[in-house]
Amino acid sequence: LSMNRIFSGVQPTGNLHLGNYLGAIRNWVRLQSDYECLFCVVDQHAITVWQDPATLRHAIREVTAGLLAAGLDPKKNVLFNQSTVPAHAQLAWVCNCVARMGWLNRMTQFKEKAGKNRENASVGLFAYPNLMAADILIYKATHVPVGEDQKQHLELTRDIAQKFNNDYGVDFFPLTEPLILGEATRVMSLRDGSKKMSKSDESDFSRINMTDTADTIAQKLKKAKTDPEPLPETVEGLDGRPEAANLVGIYAALADLTRAEVLARVGGQPFSAFKNELTDLAVSVLQPINTEMARLMADPGAIDAVLRDGAERANAIAQPILADIYDIVGL
Ligand code: ADP
Ligand code: NA
């Protein structure tokens, strides 16, 4: 696999959760030694929905602490905050002019987030995928490790890259590929098997946060929705059982096993027993991250220093690429 450069991001809104960890962050940690990687706290995406300024500022540091605590090494990667690299927003304007209204109208995440009140959604929320395309293309990133929920946005990024290349008769932007890795690429809500686990879900019982205590994790898993049957013996037995499939997928990802291997072990168990095992496993993975996050948050100056260094390195890559883009476009 020829991967030249990896980019990915996470929003500083609310708590990092198990979906962020298993769908994205853990994979970033695994890629960091072998590839050139840029990992970004995307604060400009966060403000597509109103954020309390002090809370947002705190969340930028907390998410950065979460990434560091999960094992991202700021020496091996460029770790930075989006708004400190102005070229993202500058290229986003060009992307706004390349992308078509019809393409954006098809984005399912906008429909979900805007809900019934589309007329009252911010223009930023609608144009969000163009900023995401700019985040990626400003580094000419070839691969983007994300959860399944971002697949459609990655397709839009490729469409924008391709149209730009065609419109200007250049072979400039790569056609970026998503990297959707592991057994938990779409972790679902613990309360509703049809919704993904998300920071923006109002119910705290819908997700396991990376900062939850052992007791909270136990309570949330105890309350997690399931069906009355015991766990199946085979992966096929998970068909039509979204809650069971979700919990088994989470277990598999946390234990670094396949779903089949997990079911070979726990098939036939009632959920009550399985939930206890899953609690112990989740606590054993999350507790050390949690402890390290708290240690890092005690020294915000050190977190800010990491972000400043990352911004300098990210700007150094982005600025010459932006200059080339402006040159191509005639700006
Ligand atoms: P959220 O929807 O919780 O605000 P972000 O938009 O900040 O999450 O996404 C950060 C990363 O986490 C992305 O790569 C996204 O694909 C991944 N991710 C978010 N939610 C999930 C989930 N429920 N399952 C798997 N991956 C997820
Ligand atoms: Na690296």
Automatic annotation (TrEMBL):
Enzyme type, top EC level: ligase
Annotated coiled-coil segments of the chain: none
One of the protein's GO biological processes: tryptophanyl-tRNA aminoacylation
Reaction catalysed by this enzyme: tRNA(Trp) + L-tryptophan + ATP = L-tryptophyl-tRNA(Trp) + AMP + diphosphate + H(+)
Record-linked Pfam families: tRNA-synt_1b (PF00579)
InterPro entries on file: aa-tRNA-synth_I_CS (IPR001412), aa-tRNA-synth_Ic (IPR002305), Rossmann-like_a/b/a_fold (IPR014729), Trp-tRNA-ligase (IPR002306), Trp-tRNA-ligase_bac-type (IPR024109), Trp-tRNA_synthetase (IPR050203)
Residues where L-tryptophan binds: 135
Keyword Aminoacyl-tRNA synthetase found: yes
Annotated positions binding ATP: 11-13, 19-20, 147-149, 187, 196-200
UniProt similarity note: Belongs to the class-I aminoacyl-tRNA synthetase family.
UniProt name for this protein: Tryptophan--tRNA ligase
